[in-house]
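Changelog excerpt

This revision adds worked examples to the README so contributors can see how folded entries look when concatenated. The first example is reproduced verbatim below.
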Amino acid sequence: MRILITAGPTREHLDPVRYLSNASTGRMGVALAEAAIARGHGVVLVCGPVEAPLPSGAEIRRVTSAHEMLAACLDAFRGCDAAVMAAAVCDYRPLSRQDRKMHRKGAGLTLELAPTEDICARLGAIKGRRVVVGFALEDESGGAKVRAAEKRASKHCDAIVLNALSNIGADAGQCEILLEQGGWQPAAHGAKRQLADEIMTVVERLASREFDRS
C-alpha cells in the first residue's frame, strides 16, 4: 500500500513572528510512518513543524499552515490507498495576517478568527474505496467516546483513534479505536511506536476488506 500520514501541529500566523498553534510534537505521526515503512508500505508524510526526527524511507512534504496541509494532502491522496490523519490541525486561523510585526499597545487586543477547513473530513468525502483513519483528542472523560463517534461519522472515516490528553508530548500513552463496522476495539497501551503498530494493523485489515470488495 501507499499511505498518506499527517503529523505534528499547524501554525496560523498573526504576523511574521507570532502564530496560533498547539502542543503537538508529531511523535505519533512519525511513529506511524516508521511502522508503515517497517511493514513494507510506501509512505507520504505531510508534516507541520515537528520536534521528532523524521524517518528515512518516507516521502516528506513539509507544511506550516492548515491551508498548506490541506493542499499537500489533496495532492498526495490521489496516489494513495489509505490516509491516517494524526496531525493536530488548528481549528481556527486569524481572519487577517499582518505583514509586519505587531507592537504592544496600552490597550487590549481582540483577534478575529475564522475556521480552517477540516482536512480529514475533506478526504473522507472523496475517499471512495480508500481507507481514511481519523484522530480525536478529547478531555471530557464522560463524553469522549460519544464525541469521537460523532466525529468518525461526520468525517466519513473508516475508523477513528481516540487519544487521551496525557498523550501530548509523551513517549507512551493509550488510545482506543472505533471502527465503522466493528465498534470499539480494546484499549491499547504502550510506547507510541507500539500504538502505531496497533493502528497500522487496523489500517491493513480495513484496506484488505475494501480491496476484497473490488
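The second example, added in the same revision:
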Amino acid sequence: MNNEKTPTYKRVLAWIGIIILAGMYIVLLYEAVTASPNTMNVFIGCVAATIAVPILLWLIIWSVGIFTGRHTVASLDAMTSDKKHDKFGNVIPDGRIDTVVFDIGNVLTNFAWKEFMENKGFDREMTERIGRATVNSSDWKEIDRGIISNEELLDRFVQNDPGIENEIRRAFSDYKDIVTKREYAIPWIKSLKAEGFKVLVLSNFSRQAIEGCKDAMGFLDYVDGGILSYRDKVIKPDPAIYRLLEERYSLTPEKTVFIDDTAENIEAARALGWHGIVFSSKEQAEEELRSYCLGTKH
C-alpha cells in the first residue's frame, strides 16, 4: 500500500477539474430554473466538459510522467495495482534485480584523455608519452583516492618522466573536458528508474575531474546516489568500497548488478555476491541486464 502523500500538483489539478465541472452544473441549474432559452446549449456544454476535462487532466498528468520519468495515475500500465511501488509510484521489479550500479568513466561518460592532450596542442607522440607518465601510470589511482594534493600528484608524474616536466605541468594545469558526456546517459538512467530500479553510481573519480567536467556529469542529478572514490578515500577493486555502497544504500547483493568497463572491478563485485556486466556498449549491457532481470542469466 502506498502511503505517500499525493503530490501537490495532482491535488491542484483535481480541484481545478472539480471547480470547472461544479461551476458549469451550477450554471445549468440556474438556466433550467429560470427557463432560459440557453438551457440546452449549457446542457450540451456540461456534457462536453464532463468528458473533456478529465481527458485534459489525464493528458497533463501523463505528460508530467513522461518528462519526469515517474509513474503516475495516468501511466499506461494500469495492471500494476498489485505490485510493490517505490516512493515515486514506480513499480519495483519482481525479478532478480532491483538495483543497477554504474561505473562512470567509459560507461556513462568518455574518459577522453587523448583528446584532452591534443586540444592543448600536443602531437600524438607527445600525447602518448605524457599518458605513460600520468593517466597510464600507477600514480593515477591516487588522484581518484583523493588523499594527495594536485601538486603532489604532478610531482609524481614528473618523477615518472623528468624530461617532459614542462609539458606535464602544462597538460594538467586544469582538467577541463578530460571527461566528456555520452548523450544516452540521462535517458538510460531515467528509463531504468521509470521501470522501478534503484540506480546508483560507483566510480573511481577525482574532485578535479568533477569540477572540470560539470557538463559531462549532469546525469548525477538523476541517480539515487552512489560513491565517488575521492570522497570516501577508497577505490575499486578494494572490497571496502563495494561494502560501503551496500551499507549506505541497504543493497541486497544478489539483487544488485554492477556495470563497469573493467573486468577486474566486476570480478571484485561478483566475489561479494553481486551480479556483474563488463561493459563494451550500451546495447550489449542492456541485453545482459535484460537477461538478469528475466532470470535467464546467473
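Reviewer comment on example two: The first helix runs from residue 8 to 33. The longest strand covers residues 198-203.
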